[in-house]
Amino acid sequence: MPLKLILQLSVRNLFRYPRRNGLLLLAIAFALAGATLTNAMMRGWQYDMLDRAVENLVGHVKVQASEYRDDPNMQHSFTLPKNYQPEISGVAVAGWALRIKVPAVVLSERQSRGVQLVGIDPDREGISFFADLSISGENLSGVEDGRIVLGQELARQLQTSVGRKVVVLTQGADGKNRERGFRIAGLFDSGAESLEKAFAFTGLAAAQNYLGDPQQLGDQKLVTEISVLLADESQRQEAVDSLGSAFPDKLVADWRTLQPQAAEMFAMADVAIYIIFVLMMGGLAFGLVNTLIAAVMERVRELGMLRAIGMPRRVVLVQVVVESMLIMTAGIVLGLAAGVLLVWALADGIDLSAFAEGIDAFGMSTLLIPVLSTNDLVMFSGLSLLLGFVASVFPALRAVRITPLMAMNR
Amino acid sequence: MSENQNQTPVVRCRDVSRTYQKDSIPVHALRSVDLDVHAGEFVSLAGPSGSGKSTLLNIIGGLDEFDGGSVQVDGVELGGLSPTALSALRLEKIGFVFQAYNLLPVLTAQENVEFILQLQGVDKQQRRERAAQALDNLGLGELGERRPGELSGGQQQRVAIARAIVTQPVLLVADEPTANLDSATTEELLVLMSRLNAEQGMTIVTATHDPMVMSHAGRQVHLLDGRIDRDG
User: Fold this and answer.
1) Residue A362 and residue B50: Cα distance in Å, rounded?
2) How many helices (H) and strands (E) does chain A have?
3) What is the pLDDT of residues A59-110, one digit of tens each?
């Protein structure tokens, strides 16, 4: 097969009809650029959703008492050595935190609301949304801080403010009700009302003293969860396995198990990306087939002559396919470059604050930052080439059916 | 009988017939044609339109099928050959010159001539030399880098001849090679073909209406209603 000859002819044939092929090239590039940008926005939304799910006090992997998921209260807490820190072999850990998280009722002089009371080490909460909160008043100073930080929306509903006291009612590790007054250190603004209504934070040690029995605990730490953020999310299964060995009697689960709805949305976004790409490029395929057929029909005489002088049919077939693949390749390069530039131009994010309420319901941030994935770009290139190949088969078969006599009779 | 005529003919047609359907009516393009063309002959197939000369030429060139009889080119029976085998035979044994030149417009003259050698798998160096030599022999040595659109009709047809003979085929088939040329260019081209025939012993079969072509051919075969009417 004279591949060099085929390539030479194909390249020159592309320049033979510059306007038509130029338009086709632009159409391919436009579709690819659009697909790349749409994909980057979808990925941005997807990863934002993941970040929100993970930062929503979940982490990539979490260790909890086995019964805690079905009945989250202090009776399903567990103890850890004083200087405990998670060891996960072969997996890079970005951060970790110990927490007490229990359902509670917060009462002000006027209102009461159900919340999740969360005992935290503020210095370790870089792995959750807590680190990004804007706090009016004061933040918690450390694990011993016995004050409370509420969400602004919760404070509004409770009709309370910084410096005032609220009463927190919940169940202790012994199963008995506990009730204690907490002074409000600060109010956090997360940009999402759902978070501001859901959580109330206090120091981890203060929560331990409030909910556990300090004399029984001694030097040990009482927690309801260990939350771990990995440097690479894809290593979550290794982390689950490693922590599972360290805590054989505990439930060790990744974020997909802990947040199944978010996991499903994440998987759905993957499917949506493929569907959008196939729809965009599928429409283009018809244009490609049409253009290639026109190119073949305009060259019946020439193709017939090539057959007459002895060019084998397979060479004619390969030549048409190569022409299609060449124009597709040029379109891919141009389209991906334009798409990457567009994504780069929008790298600071797209402000969606005008739709803040609806977006909050989807668990998204109001700033959508497009995310480029090398894997997606490789997949787009591969699928586009496959499409170029498939689109060329019909025109190529028509070219092969041209006989020298047909050419001469034209 | 000449020495050539003692040898196996380059083209041997026996009892060849060809019928095709036109608007569901059978048209007998060839009826029981016998024809031998020996090495070194310059044969012109002549006759009025519809006489069957182009059909016979196409069958000899392996471009058209025949219904009955036998056609051999260089000892190879064409009947029953697959399209692939026919392609290979045309590539290796037959050179074609068409009425409309049919050069590839995206290639230069040199590349058009090299092209067929590339199909044959000839290496680059040899390709270059043989194509340049063929063009040079036809007086086109200076025009190798020009594309067909930059050449006159006569020059294009000479490039087409160079492409046809560069593979050193056993047979040169020319279908109305002068139909698009003026008389001066026609004469020039015919002198060239006669020279190829005389000096290199190239066997040429051409179909034509043109009396000038007939006058240069050493043998005229006249067809009428699908039969050979006169030979000689």
Assistant:
1) 79
2) 14, 14
3) 899 999 999 988 999 999 999 988 888 888 888 899 999 999 999 999 999 9
**Percentage of chain B surpassing pLDDT 90?**
53
Contact A405 B61 (CB under 8 A): no
Burial group, residue A71, by CB count within 10 angstroms (0-12, 13-18, 19+): exposed
Spatial separation of the C-alpha atoms in residues A169 and A103, rounded to whole Å: 9
Strands A148-151 and A199-203: antiparallel
Task: Check: CB of residue A374 under 8 Å from CB of residue A68.
Answer: no
As given in the structure block, the two tokens for residue A217 are 């605990």
CA distance A188 to A201: 10
| Alpha carbon distance, N-terminus to C-terminus of chain A | 29
Name residue, tokens 């909910």.
Answer: A211
Euclidean distance between CA atoms B137 and B145, whole angstroms? 16
* SS3 labels along A196-237: HHHEEEEEHHHHHHHHCCHHHHCCCEEECEEEEEECCHHHHH
Residue labelled with tokens 């009516």: B25
CA distance A92 to A263: 22
Residue with tokens 């977006």: A359
Dihedral sign (CA A272, A273, A279, A285): negative
Partners of A78 in the β-ladder: A223
Alpha-carbon span B164 to B159, nearest angstrom? 9
Band (A341; pLDDT cuts 50, 70, 90)? very high
Of A2, A4, A9, the CB nearest to B106: A9
Contact A85, A96 (CB under 8 A): yes
The pair phi, psi for residue A389, each rounded to 5°, is -70, -50
* Residues B58, B68: Cα–Cα separation, whole Å: 15
CB atoms B84 and A309 under 8 Å: no
The neighbouring-strand residues paired with A134 are A189
Q: How far is A401 from chain B (nearest CA, A)?
A: 11
* pTM for the whole structure: 0.70
CA-nearest of A209, A243, A248 to A229 is A243
**Could you give the residue ranges of the DSSP H alpha helices within A218-312?**
236-246, 255-258, 260-298, 300-308
User: At CB < 8 Å, which residues of chain A contact B?
Assistant: 2, 4-5, 9, 12-13, 15-16, 301-302, 305-313, 315, 403-405, 408
Whole-number Å distance between alpha carbons of A325 and A10 = 10
The closest alpha carbon to B164, from A2, A310, A303, belongs to A310
Q: Is B98 on the interface with A (CB under 8 A)?
A: yes
CA distances, A187 to each of A57, A126, A127 (Å): 18, 18, 20
Q: Which range is most confident: A11-25, A346-360, B216-230?
A: B216-230
> Which residues of chain A lie closer than 8 angstroms to B90, CB-CB?
308-310
Across the interface, do A405 and B104 touch by the CB < 8 Å criterion?
A: no
Q: Report helix, strand or coil for B157.
A: helix
pLDDT tens track for A120-147 = 999 999 888 888 889 999 999 999 999 9
Q: Are B86 and B66 in contact (CB under 8 A)?
A: no
Helix spans in A124-213 (H): 152-158, 193-198, 204-211
